[in-house]
Amino acid sequence: MEAIVSEYLSQHGYSALRSAMPQVEVFFRVEGNLAMAILMIDGRQFILDVPSYQNMKDQVGRMFEAKGYTNVCVFTIFLTPNITNVHEIARNDSFFWAIDLGRKRLCIFDNGMRDFDGLRDGLADAINMAASRPVGDKTVGQWIIDHTVRNPAPATVCLILLNIIAFIAVTAFGSSTDLDYMISIGALYAPAVFDKAQFYRLFTCMFLHFGVEHLGANMFALALFGSRVERIMGSGRYLLLYILSGLAASMMSLGTGVFLHSTNASVGASGAVFGIIGALFAILIRNRGRLGSMTAGRAAFLITYSIFSGFMAKGIDNAAHIGGLLMGLILGFILYRVPKRTKPKNEQTENMG
């Protein structure tokens, strides 16, 4: 549950601070002279009394005041397996929510703020989604369902379905491993593009795959990275990212083929997927190197390993991967916007009854 809350806050512009206590994580976001800090406290390992809790919040407030912020709001999200453990704290602090780990729900007490920085509804939805996920080992199919259908990323789902439908249609009339057949139905092939002006191939090749393993690998990567980037960017910008990255991959592949005097045919969604990975890396940089459990270092390792593996293997269109990656990186900086939130007001407390 900590990872879910952490990722949600990161997606909404909050950065993480290191804490001396392993049970406490501090997230913050600033707007001018306003600093909004959120304490995420793991109450599974200890019970916190009111004086200790208040002292903890005061220390965080003083830390931001010392940095020159004149308006500081310190909010708390308390994770607990027993909601009765936090009743006393909740009665004394309106800037307090709890997450009931047993029932997997967000709890807001009678005197608690109904919303803080526009976070309530989305956080409650994220917790509800987590509650609906199966526990334990998952098959690849279950994992993909979790990251698409149960945690909706509609554009990613549509892209995966479109690729699968295209593959079924292709294999219904021929073999997806037959090079001549694949060229005849839209694979990226330089002589056809330049001699016959068949520029549509730059687009159609993104939805064709050489065999079921090629399709499966790309769709797994699309479910893994695409669903996350779509939820961050929004479906419209995400689709623009996917298409432009795929087209950039095709153009890079063509250009490299001309330079190397190669006439190899190329198909696959991997150029667009590399664009998504490039955009994710840009988003991580914009979020000071971290987004939930993902870090810029891990993303850089993934990119380096994927590119290196491509050069070590045969039949991989590395130019397309690099072209898609670079376009995705550029578009990530252009399209991603840290969500703006309304400043909280200290007097905004309502009884929920």
Characterise the protein shown here.
The protein is of the alpha/beta class and 353 residues long. The protein has two domains: 2-131; 140-335, Rhomboid-like (Rhomboid-like fold, Up-down Bundle), CATH 1.20.1540.10. The protein has 14 helices and eight strands. It has helices at 2-11, 50-66, 87-92, 120-131, 140-147, 154-173, 179-184, 190-196, 201-204, 212-233, 235-259, 270-286, 296-312, 318-335, and strands at 15-17, 24-31, 34-42, 71-80, 96-100, 105-107, 290-291, 294-295. Strand 4 (71-80), helix 3 and strand 5 (96-100) form a beta-alpha-beta unit. Helix 12 runs parallel beside helix 14. The longest helix is centred in the last third of the chain and has 25 residues, at 235-259. The chain is elongated.
Question: Outline of this structure?
Answer:
The chain is of the alpha/beta class and 353 residues long.
Largest sheet: 6 strands, mixed
What distance lies between the first and last C-alpha atoms, to the nearest angstrom?
Answer: 27 Å
Global Rg: 24 Å
Helical fraction: 40-55%
Mean pLDDT: 82
Structural class: alpha/beta
Question: What are the secondary-structure elements, in order, as H or E?
Answer: HEEEHEHEEHHHHHHHHHEEHH
The residue ranges in which pLDDT falls below 50 over 5 or more consecutive positions are 134-140, 339-353
**Total beta-strand segments:** 8
The CATH top-level class label of the largest domain? Mainly Alpha
The CATH superfamily of the largest domain appears as: Rhomboid-like
Query: Per CATH, what is the topology of the largest domain?
Result: Rhomboid-like fold
